[in-house]
Design a protein that fits this description.
- There is one protein chain.
- By secondary structure, this protein is of the alpha+beta class.
- Helices cover 34% and strands 24% of the residues.
- It has 11 helices and 16 strands.
- Strands 1, 2, 3, 4, 5, 6, 14, 15 and 16 form a 9-stranded mixed sheet that branches. Strands 7, 9, 10, 12 and 13 form a 5-stranded antiparallel sheet that branches.
- It starts with 8 loop residues before the first helix and ends with a helix.
């Protein structure tokens, strides 16, 4: 698989490669204080707001080679095509390679001014503060406010991305016009019991943090399934202390991730999970605590941009359909400051975040062409 995790050496080298491609496409390249790699092409109309398009190139550990990369490389190819055709764009164009998308949409949050000072100083799970990581990739946490763009500062944002689900691949539809992007709340939960000898501690005297955590994992699945809708809930990480086979676990930390297009539904589900977790702790003789690690706010894509994407696809003879995004994307942050839209292309068998992730070359080409024609349509309208 691909392990180009944000802020890693592989990420740094990948960003340098992407920057070279951007310069070859005639873009003026810089890194903003939030670590975003930005390529600028001047516009012909004085005072026109920029059209922004791009994606990310960081990956999850042992991920795939299409998530983020398809949109990023296609955005650069669009810029290259405009340069070759000597296109005179009215709006300034900004190709964005967003920093650290996978662990919390870091770069796009910085672009809209949503990284608080305490987050820059707080050590991550690897013990390294975010501010220090930004410096690794050319960002400047001391000037993070200079990266911020307010509402109305961009004319529009378009992101091409693989679907990461199987709807388009199953139906044979070539282009997904994204209706909205789910919100994601991520909670770090800790159960604390008492670590003791596994052979000499009777079953009725144990305060087993792992038992409490196991009950909560089942409760999350049951509670999320109990409500009609497309919401999902996942426990994807467990850390057991001390983690020895002959010791009753004294502490377990786990993550609970909830996703839906309605932030109200996410909050409601978490409240039910929290109440159940407190009951589990009481029954098992453990304590329960949680921190909401981060929240990506749900966003609906702009109807005008959705129309432009659909008409671009139609003009190219490509089938298309309106659909939601079950994954989080940088576009949901850009939607907070201006009109935003997303283009999906099929993921074979719906596999993503895996070495088996694949999008057919023809589908990548279709997506890049829809992106090109969407940018042209947006640039040429008032």
């Amino acid at each position: 698989g691909v392990s180009r995790v944000g802020f890693s050496q592989a990420d740094i080298e990948g960003r340098a490669f992407a920057a070279g491609l951007m310069r070859a496409a005639g873009l003026e390249v810089r890194i903003d204080p939030a670590g975003n790699l930005l390529g600028h092409r001047a516009g012909a109309v004085t005072g026109a707001r920029p059209l922004v398009f791009g994606s990310h190139i960081d990956s999850v550990p042992e991920g795939g080679n299409y998530d983020g990369d398809v949109g990023s490389m296609s955005a650069i190819e669009v810029a290259h095509t405009l340069q070759e055709r000597e296109y005179r764009n009215r709006h300034p164009l900004l190709v964005a390679i967003w920093a650290d998308e996978e662990s919390g949409l870091t770069g796009s949050r910085g672009f809209i001014g949503d990284i608080p000072p305490e987050e820059l100083a707080r050590p991550g799970r690897d013990g390294v503060p975010l501010g220090e990581k930004l410096r690794r990739i050319g960002g400047d946490p001391d000037k993070i406010r200079e990266a911020a763009h307010g509402p109305g500062s961009v004319a529009g944002y378009v992101e091409l991305h693989i679907e990461q689900g199987g709807i388009l691949d199953r139906t044979g539809v070539k282009i997904g016009v994204v209706e909205g992007i789910v919100g994601i709340n991520h909670y770090d939960v800790t159960f604390k019991g008492f670590a003791n000898h596994a052979g000499t501690t009777p079953m009725d005297e144990r305060r087993n943090a792992m038992l409490a955590a196991a009950e909560l994992v089942l409760a999350v699945d049951r509670i999320v399934r109990s409500v009609p809708g497309r919401q999902v809930g996942t426990v994807g990480r467990l850390a057991v202390k001390p983690g020895a086979p002959n010791v009753v676990p004294g502490e377990v930390t786990l993550t609970v991730e909830l996703r839906d297009l309605s932030m109200e539904k996410i909050d409601s589900l978490w409240e039910r999970i929290r109440v159940e977790a407190e009951g589990i702790a009481a029954r098992t003789g453990t304590t329960f605590a949680f921190v909401r690690e981060h929240s990506n706010v749900a966003a609906f894509c702009d109807p005008g941009i959705r129309t432009e994407i659909a008409q671009a696809a139609q003009g190219l003879g490509l089938s298309h359909q309106l659909m939601p995004s079950g994954a989080g994307h940088d576009a949901q942050n850009l939607a907070r400051i201006g009109p935003a839209g997303m283009i999906f292309v099929p993921s074979v068998r719906g596999i993503s975040h895996s070495p088996l992730e694949h999008t057919r070359p023809a589908d990548v080409e279709h997506g890049a062409n829809v992106l090109l024609h969407t940018i042209l349509r947006l640039d040429q309208r008032s």
